[in-house]
Design brief:
The chain has 297 residues and is an alpha/beta fold. The protein is 37% helix and 19% strand.
């Protein structure tokens, strides 16, 4: 990001904070939360508010906000990218930069389960709520729902997520739930990435709230995605996850998963924004090319 653009962002926040709401009101909204083919390709950037600042190989990568915004703006400009998932400060920077015209916006809601904290599974709603998402004119909200059957904090988080699903549905806004069965290893929360665990987490998440009419699931890619998707009729998007050494091989697992009928797209963050070769445009184009009927640029 050029220094003058960064300075303008800071000056706007100091002198014209109302410009954020104005930019949200003026934003050209998409006709639907999916593209004309019924697909969603969403870039995720909601990690920093949980104290998670980068992939394992670059743990402070997201600490440079100007660099993160450059990468986000580039990713959002690529053909086939339909929107962004972010926390308030990041989404508002993108609004002020004009990067969200015609894009779907999902506000990240529960960021209180700070990475590595003893209370991590007591995942409080510290960012967006349904009322603010409606007020800003966004298309939906996302919540992380980690379920550890041995941690009492899970109960409050699940209840809060159910309430958020209902409040979003009352406003006809999408509730994107990211469910995991979780456990603790050496005192740290770890998500269980087996087919059985993904099925169990998905079925629990699908029943949250007073209606599932506006609920989507955001699930990790596991061994048998057809079995996971078969556990529900809800629209499902795939979680991108960590950058991997065998990223090309992992892309092929995404391609197979995207062929499952109720898998409508992907939500990818770190592996797009911080690929091993730092070529964000190429990483985005490759993932867009995995969608059925799409060709990589």
């Amino acid at each position: 990001m050029r220094e003058d653009r960064l300075r303008t962002l800071v000056e706007t926040r100091i002198r014209e904070p109302e410009a954020i709401a104005q930019a949200a009101a003026a934003r050209r909204r998409p006709a639907a939360p999916v593209d004309e083919d019924g697909r969603a390709m969403i870039v995720a950037a909601d990690h920093p508010p949980r104290g998670f600042l980068g992939p394992a190989t670059r743990p402070l990568a997201m600490a440079d906000r100007a660099d993160l915004l450059d990468r986000l703006c580039l990713a959002l400009s690529r053909p086939g990218v339909t929107g962004v998932l972010g926390a308030p400060d990041i989404v508002e920077d993108l609004l002020l930069l004009g990067a969200l015209e015609g894009k779907v916006v999902f506000g990240s809601m529960n960021r209180g389960g700070l990475a590595g904290a003893t209370w991590e599974l007591d995942d409080r709603f510290t960012a967006y709520d349904a009322a603010s998402i409606e007020r800003m004119g966004y298309e939906g909200g996302k919540m992380l729902t980690r379920i550890d059957l041995e941690d009492p904090a899970t109960a409050g988080t699940v209840e809060a997520c159910a309430r958020a699903v209902s409040e979003l549905a009352d406003r006809r806004l999408v509730a994107m739930i990211e469910p995991f069965m979780s456990t603790r290893k050496d005192g740290r929360v770890a998500n269980v990435l087996t087919t059985e665990a993904a099925i169990k987490a998905s079925t629990i998440a699908a029943g949250l709230g007073t209606t599932s009419a506006y609920t989507w699931l955001k699930i990790p890619v596991v061994e048998d995605m057809a079995a996971v998707a078969a556990a529900t009729t809800l629209p499902t998007v795939l979680l991108g996850g960590e950058v991997r050494e065998d990223q090309e091989a992992f892309f092929e697992t995404w391609r197979s998963a995207l062929a499952v009928p109720n898998v409508i797209g992907m939500v990818v963050g770190r592996s797009l924004l911080y690929p091993a070769d730092d070529d964000v445009a190429a990483a985005v184009d490759t993932v867009v090319g995995l969608f059925p009927g799409k060709v990589a640029s």
